[in-house]
C-alpha cells in the first residue's frame, strides 16, 4: 500500500516530528478488537449489497481475524507513521491479502470508524461497570445486614446530631451507587447508536445497508444525521459525568472511612490487607486505599473537564482535536473500575467497633430533638418545646451531664408536662426505633430497605 492514504494529493513526505506528534496508536490500540469487529461487519455488509464479492469478503474477514490473533499474541508491530489503529489494521491486512485490502475502506471514513470503535468500547465497559456496581451494592447491603444492630451518631456539619443505625448509614451509599447505576444504564441508550456508514460527514453514494451492519454489531438503532454522528461525543461526556458523580460518592465514603478509622473516632479498623504502614513510624496503619480513592476522584473529574473543554468550541463535523477524547475516557474507565474492584473485597473485612460507636451515640445531647418531640406529644407547640429543651441542654452543660442524667425533678422544672417515662424516651435504641417514617433509621425500616435492595439486585441479574 502507499505510505499514506492521502499520498496522491501531497508532494512532500510527512515530517517524522509530525508523525510522532499526530500519532495516537499508543492510546487507541486498545480499540483493536472493536475496530476489527466493525471492519468485519462492514465487509459483510458490502458483500451483501454487491460492492464486494463473496470470495473477497471471505478473504478480508479471514485476514482481519488473523490480525486479531497477531495482536493478542503480542506479535503485532506498531509504527507512528501509520498514526492510529485503523491504519495499522488496514496496512497489515494488505500484507496478508494483497490489493483486495484496498476495497475494505469503501463507503466509510476514519471519522465514522473511530466513532464506532469508541461507542463499542464504551458500550462494553459500561456494561461491565454496571455489573461491578451491582456487586458493590450487593456488598453494601450484605455489610449493612451484618451490622443491623450497631448504633452510631449521625452527623450534620461533622457535629453529632442524632443517633442512627450504621446499617442506615451504609444504605445511604447503596442509594447513591444505585443512582449511579441508573445513570450509566440510561446513558447506555445513547451510547448504543451505530454511526458506521456516515463516512466522513455527508454519508456515501454506495448502496449500503446500515441497518444490516447495526444488526451484525448488536446496535438497536443507527444515527439519524451523518454530520452529528461523526461529530458527537455527548455520549462520552455523559459517561464521564456519571463516572465523576460515582467517584464523588466513593470519595465521600472514603472520607468517612478515613475519619472513622482515626484514633479520634475509633469507630472502625481497616483490614491489614487493605492498609499500609509507615516507613519511619512502626505503629502506623494508614488507610491508603480510601485515601487513594479520594485522590483519584480528582483525576476522573479532571477527565470530564478535559472532554468538555475539548468539545466546547468545535465546529461541525470532525476535527482532529477529537483525537484527544480517548486519553480522558480510558483513564476514567480504568480508574473507576479499579476503585470499584478494590472496594468490593475491602468493605466486608472492615472491623466495626460497635461499643465505641454506641457510646458515641449516647453522648453529646443527641436526644435533645427527642425531648422536644416528647413535649410536642404532650401538647406543647414545637417551637416552644425546642426552647424548653434548649434550656435543659444549657443546664446539663453547666452540670457536665447529659440530658438523661438530669434528675426528674430538675427536668420537671423546665416543664410540668415531663413525667418519669421521659427517660425511656431518651434511650439511644428507643430514639432509633421510633423513627419509623418512610426512609427513617428504625430497624424495621432498614431491614425492609435491605430486603428491597436484595430483590432489586436479583432482578438486575
Tell me about this structure.
- The protein is mainly alpha-helical.
- The chain has three domains: 16-106, Fumarase/aspartase (N-terminal domain) (Fumarase C, Chain B, domain 1), CATH 1.10.275.10; 119-140 and 165-198 and 224-352, Fumarase/aspartase (Central domain) (Fumarase C, Chain A, domain 2), CATH 1.20.200; 362-460, Ribonucleotide Reductase Protein R1, domain 1, CATH 1.10.40.
- It is built from 19 helices and six strands.
- It has helices at residues 16-22, 25-28, 32-48, 54-72, 85-97, 110-146, 166-191, 210-217, 226-231, 234-260, 288-311, 326-346, 354-361, 368-377, 382-399, 408-412, 422-425, 428-433, 443-460, and strands at residues 151-156, 159-165, 193-194, 221-222, 268-269, 351-352.
- It has a two-stranded antiparallel ribbon with strand order 1-2. Strands 3-4 form a two-stranded parallel ribbon. The protein has a two-stranded antiparallel ribbon with strand order 5-6.
- Helix 8 links the parallel strand 3 and strand 4.
- The mean pLDDT is 95.
Uncertain segments of ≥5 residues (pLDDT<50)? none
**Top CATH class of the largest domain:** Mainly Alpha
**How many separate domains make up the residues?**
3
Determine the CATH superfamily of the largest domain.
Fumarase/aspartase (Central domain)
Count the strands?
6
Shape: elongated
Named CATH architecture of the largest domain: Up-down Bundle
What class would the helix/strand composition place it in? mainly alpha
- How far apart the termini lie comes to 48 Å
In DSSP terms (H or I, runs of 4 or more residues), the helix count works out at 19
Largest sheet: 2 strands, antiparallel
Helix content: 55-70%
SSE ordering: HHHHHHEEHEHEHHEHHEHHHHHHH
CATH topology of the largest domain: Fumarase C, Chain A, domain 2
Strand order of the largest sheet: 1-2
Mean pLDDT: 95
Round the Cα radius of gyration to an integer and report it: 31 Å
The proportion of residues in beta strands is under 5%
Amino acid at each position: 500500500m502507499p505510505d499514506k492514504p492521502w499520498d496522491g494529493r501531497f508532494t512532500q513526505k510527512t515530517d517524522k516530528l509530525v508523525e510522532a506528534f499526530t500519532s495516537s496508536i499508543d492510546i487507541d490500540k486498545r480499540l483493536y478488537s472493536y475496530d476489527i469487529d466493525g471492519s468485519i461487519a462492514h465487509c459483510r455488509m458490502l458483500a451483501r449489497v454487491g460492492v464486494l464479492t463473496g470470495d473477497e469478503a471471505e478473504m478480508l474477514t479471514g485476514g482481519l481475524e488473523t490480525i486479531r490473533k497477531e495482536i493478542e499474541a503480542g506479535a503485532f508491530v506498531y509504527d507512528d507513521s501509520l498514526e492510529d489503529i485503523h491504519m495499522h489494521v488496514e496496512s497489515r491486512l494488505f500484507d496478508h491479502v494483497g490489493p483486495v485490502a484496498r476495497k475494505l475502506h469503501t463507503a466509510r471514513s476514519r471519522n465514522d470508524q473511530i466513532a464506532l470503535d469508541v461507542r463499542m468500547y464504551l458500550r462494553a465497559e459500561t456494561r461491565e461497570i454496571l455489573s461491578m456496581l451491582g456487586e458493590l451494592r450487593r456488598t453494601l447491603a450484605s455489610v449493612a445486614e451484618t451490622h443491623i444492630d450497631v448504633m452510631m451518631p449521625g452527623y450534620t456539619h461533622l457535629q453529632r446530631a442524632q443517633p442512627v443505625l450504621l446499617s442506615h448509614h451504609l444504605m445511604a451509599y447503596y442509594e447513591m451507587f444505585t443512582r449511579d447505576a441508573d445513570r450509566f444504564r440510561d446513558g447506555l441508550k445513547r451510547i448504543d447508536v451505530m454511526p458506521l456508514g456516515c463516512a466522513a460527514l455527508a454519508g456515501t453514494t454506495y448502496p449500503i445497508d446500515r441497518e444490516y451492519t447495526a444488526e451484525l454489531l448488536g446496535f438497536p438503532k443507527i444515527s439519524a444525521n451523518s454530520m452529528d454522528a461523526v461529530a458527537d461525543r455527548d455520549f462520552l461526556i455523559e459517561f464521564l459525568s456519571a463516572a465523576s458523580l460515582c467517584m464523588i460518592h466513593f470519595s465521600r465514603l472514603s472520607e468517612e472511612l478515613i475519619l472513622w478509622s482515626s484514633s479520634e473516632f475509633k469507630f472502625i479498623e481497616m483490614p491489614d490487607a487493605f492498609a499500609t504502614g509507615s516507613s519511619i513510624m512502626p505503629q502506623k496503619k494508614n488507610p491508603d486505599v480510601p485515601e487513594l480513592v479520594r485522590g483519584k476522584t480528582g483525576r476522573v473529574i479532571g477527565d470530564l473537564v478535559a472532554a468538555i473543554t475539548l468539545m466546547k468550541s468545535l465546529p461541525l463535523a470532525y476535527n482532529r482535536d477529537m483525537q484527544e477524547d480517548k486519553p480522558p475516557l480510558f483513564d476514567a474507565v480504568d480508574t473507576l473500575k479499579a476503585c470499584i474492584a478494590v472496594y468490593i473485597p475491602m468493605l466486608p473485612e472492615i472491623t466495626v467497633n460497635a461499643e465505641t460507636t454506641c457510646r458515641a451515640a449516647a453522648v453529646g445531647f443527641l436526644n435533645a430533638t427527642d425531648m422536644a418531640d416528647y413535649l410536642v406529644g404532650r401538647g406543647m407547640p414545637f417551637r416552644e418545646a425546642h426552647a424548653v429543651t434548649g434550656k435543659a441542654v444549657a443546664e446539663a452543660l453547666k452540670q457536665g451531664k447529659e440530658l438523661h442524667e438530669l434528675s426528674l425533678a430538675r427536668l420537671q422544672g423546665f416543664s410540668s408536662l415531663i413525667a418519669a417515662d421521659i427517660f425511656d424516651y431518651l434511650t439511644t435504641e428507643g430514639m432509633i426505633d421510633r423513627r419509623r417514617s418512610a426512609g427513617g433509621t428504625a430497624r424495621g425500616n432498614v431491614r425492609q430497605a435491605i430486603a428491597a435492595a436484595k430483590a432489586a439486585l436479583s432482578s438486575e441479574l
